[in-house]
Amino acid sequence: MARSPCDLRLLLLAAAAAFIYIQVRLFATQSHYADRLAEAERSENQCTSQLKSLIDQVSMQQEKIVALEEIKVRQDEERAHLRILIKDLEKRSVQKLLDKNVVPVAAVVIMACNRPDYLERTVESILKYQTSVASKFPLFISQDGANGAVKNKALEYKQITYMQHVDLEPVQTERPGELTAYYKIAKHYKWALDNLFIKHNFARVIILEDDMEIAPDFFDYFEAAAKLLDNDKYVMLLYAFYIQI
Fold first, then answer.
1. Above 70 in pLDDT, residue 197?
2. pTM (2 decimals)?
3. Which of 21, 63, 77, 221 has CA atoms 20 to 30 A from the CA of 115?
4. Which top class of enzyme applies to this chain (predicted)?
């Protein structure tokens, strides 16, 4: 059965419409994927740029770390050198204070922390009577902490050997709630006494705090009592503190 020309035209129109629709959809799909591809490329470029920036930052940080490590090595070397110098200076200072022909009766150490005005009064009180017996009673100041005013005041006295105890370690108390100040003071005392007894090899040490003033017979008393301390095994220490009521 033959089709009429009208039917053929309708079929052609339908086919053309379908073709056009397919082309439009295909173009839209291609445009969509092209946009997504462009966006992906932009994201990739951005990620690449960020990655490069991070690599540059890491490289800079590595260079800083290397530089800091070199600085630390130099500082460690300088600290080691300073320790040697300090030990040498302390040794020379003590040797200057000691008369080779006189055996010291005892080292006198003033325990200080953060009161420069009190320290000055104590030192002036001691020097008033110590100068004539300096070789028998070499004088030391042991400072706990890094108070600059106390250190400067101590270094003003050329006839006194200055020692500094700096302990930044956290204090571990035996019981919860205890005051840490007592532990810090005890550590300072032990450090100072170890230096005087072990490092400087003194047989006796007289301890004064930075708020004390001595009597005129202070050194005579300890020189006379030193023999008692040496000869009587029941005498462990000598006490000269007097509270006036």
1. yes
2. 0.60
3. 221
4. transferase
